[in-house]
Amino acid sequence: MELMANAMAQEAVSRTADRVAQEARRGGEDELRLERFMNNKPPIFKGGYDPDGAQTWLEGIERIFGAMRCQDEHRVLLGGYVLHDEADHWWGNAKQRLEVDGAILTWARFKREFLTKY
Known about the structure:
Layout: H1 2-39, H2 51-68, H3 72-81, H4 85-100, H5 107-117
């Protein structure tokens, strides 16, 4: 009985260690993705009423996403990373509002919200 309990405990520890290692790898992948993105010198968008600037910003960001073969789930995070000043405040509020509504934050949804605002 004690051997079985020890085996189960060791299995639980092993699963936990595997899960921690997997999360660490994922965190490392996120850091590498961000580093690769920033090495492409993405444009910064600060906000204000600027429809042409907003469209130009989106085109520049999407060009980088294409070169990186960036998945949709990462685009929102990376795109939001290069919003500064007023645009960063806007996105923080918009993201919070969308998450409360239970919306999935896709890149298409981000673009729609962004172009509606700017």
